[in-house]
Design goal:
The chain is an alpha+beta fold. The chain contains 11 helices and 19 strands. It folds into 2 domains: about 325 residues, 3-Layer(bba) Sandwich (FAD/NAD(P)-binding domain), CATH 3.50.50.60; about 110 residues, no CATH class. Helix 1 packs parallel to helix 3.
């Protein structure tokens, strides 16, 4: 594969010094416009802070739009097994077959999307996931930030963080050259912990025994998909269908024939709000890390070759796909796991699987521990106890060895196992909103985030409609 690789033991080149304009000073700077960044910006603005958000692409949404990670995964603690065909809609205040454990900014976004026919409300019929349209997601996210008064900068990539007496100066690279934005508090929502680690925060990568991370996946959308024909095939061949996510026999036969050469055992289909469209989550690239430009380049090439195989397989072997075609793939490959910034507390797999409560809880999750094999085929799934949710403490958002810095999203402080649950987008948005509230309260009080009382963050989160465990932040 013709991917550039660096020299072994490369020589170094000394770059000339440079100056960069200081273009803005704000209370709160959010770096990254994905779900965590959206939650952070909305939470901070609603608390009364002056907020700027900087995003590397020309649109908002992060993995939801750039990587086409569709749909939003479940943010409910199901009280009993979902029943296929039950179309009961579950709203934030309902307590039916599963309680909502993430609300707040997430539900502000979803309600707007649903009104614009850009998302399907979660229900037992959707498996409590939320199918959404990525283009409408971009527009709705832009509307919400505009209405909140958040200032935006697109096409800028964070490259460094410089400490000042009462905050940070973050350096961004772009077409205009380097620019600097100064903030009292910075919230790292990059997913990779780029800013926090540049500021000196310690971090871990991968599982403890070998450092391997969960694989990357390039998502794509197929249109002109004949769902009724596909559904009829599934009903007539139940022995070939295992659950809702894989035509195992057809996949196995194609693999034996050399048509599919994937380090994965199944093909995952997800509905979208459009009847003749389906989202496909089936490429898998292992052994590479998303913080390496060399590995990312190789991963993009490998994943697109896998995409080509899957597209051909679907159109030639799977009923309902005969007239379909590939409409869109992600702007970039979806990265599940890179750096996990070490905070004042590190959430563990045991914390999740025992639904451990914390006094300084600022978000909840109920998504399973979901580990895609870092070394190849297979996925490990362990569920949170039925009817329960786990807490995420504020301390997980506070990087060690730094002040006036918070992290949110998949780079918060946790182990490899815990990360496999809290990495999903609804939980990322919840930790983002909490980080935004904490940052805004710090700016208003003149304190650093570490000095902000968890009870104050909890109280403001409840005021903003966030879902916290009963009793948390109520006194």
């Amino acid at each position: 594969m013709g991917v550039l690789r660096p020299f072994d033991n490369p020589a170094t080149v000394t770059l000339p010094p440079r100056a960069a304009p200081l273009v803005a000073r704000v209370d709160v700077l959010v770096v990254g416009g994905g779900p965590a960044g959206l939650g952070a910006a909305l939470g901070a603005a609603e608390t009364g802070a002056e907020v700027a958000l900087v995003e590397r692409y020309g649109f908002l949404g992060g993995n939801a739009t750039a990587a086409l990670v569709m749909p939003l995964m479940s943010f409910h603690n199901e009280k009993k097994q979902a029943v296929a065909g039950d179309d009961t809609r579950l709203l934030p205040t309902d307590h039916g077959e599963g309680d909502v454990v993430v609300a707040g900014a997430l539900w502000v976004l979803l309600e707007r999307l649903i009104r614009r026919h850009g998302a399907v409300a979660p229900s037992q019929a959707t498996g409590y996931t939320v199918p959404f349209d990525p283009e409408l997601f971009k527009l709705v996210a832009l509307d919400l930030l505009d209405e909140s008064g958040v200032k935006l900068l697109f096409h800028a990539f964070a490259s460094d963080a410089l400490p000042v007496d009462d905050g940070w100066q973050v350096v961004f690279e772009g077409k205009s050259g380097p620019v600097v934005i100064e903030a009292r508090t910075v919230i790292d929502c990059t997913g990779d912990g780029d800013v926090a680690t540049a500021a000196g925060a310690p971090y871990e990568v991968g599982r403890p025994d070998d450092g391997l991370v969960q694989p990357m996946t390039l998502m794509f959308r197929m249109v002109e998909f004949a769902q009724p024909k596909f559904a009829e095939y599934v009903r007539e061949h139940p022995d070939q269908w295992r659950g809702v996510h894989g035509l195992w026999d057809l996949v196995r036969e194609a693999g034996e024939a050399g048509e599919l050469r994937l380090p994965r055992e199944d093909i995952l289909f997800f509905a979208t709000p459009h009847e003749r469209e389906v989202s496909v989550n089936s490429t898998r690239v292992t052994g590479l890390v998303g913080t390496s430009v060399w590995d990312l380049s190789r991963a993009e090439c490998l994943a697109r070759r896998q995409l080509e195989q899957i597209d051909h397989f679907l159109r030639t072997h799977v009923p309902g796909f005969e007239q379909s075609y590939l409409a869109q793939s992600g702007v970039q490959i979806g990265v599940r796991e890179t750096r996990r910034v070490l905070g004042d507390y590190q959430l563990t797999g045991d914390d999740i699987l025992t639904a451990r409560p914390f006094a300084d809880a600022i978000a909840q999750g109920a998504y399973p521990v979901d580990i895609h094999n870092p070394a190849g085929v297979g996925t490990t799934l362990h569920r949170v106890p039925q009817g329960k949710a786990y807490d995420i403490p504020l301390r997980c958002l506070l990087p060690r060895d730094t002040e006036r810095m918070l992290v949110a999203g998949r780079c918060i402080s946790g182990t490899h196992v815990a990360h496999s649950s809290y990495r999903v987008m609804p939980i990322a948005m919840a930790t983002g909103q909490a980080a935004g509230v904490c940052a805004a309260l710090a700016a208003q009080s003149g304190h650093v985030p570490r000095e902000v009382a968890a009870t104050a963050v909890q109280h403001e989160l409840r005021r903003q409609g966030a879902a916290l465990r009963e009793g948390v932040g109520e006194h």
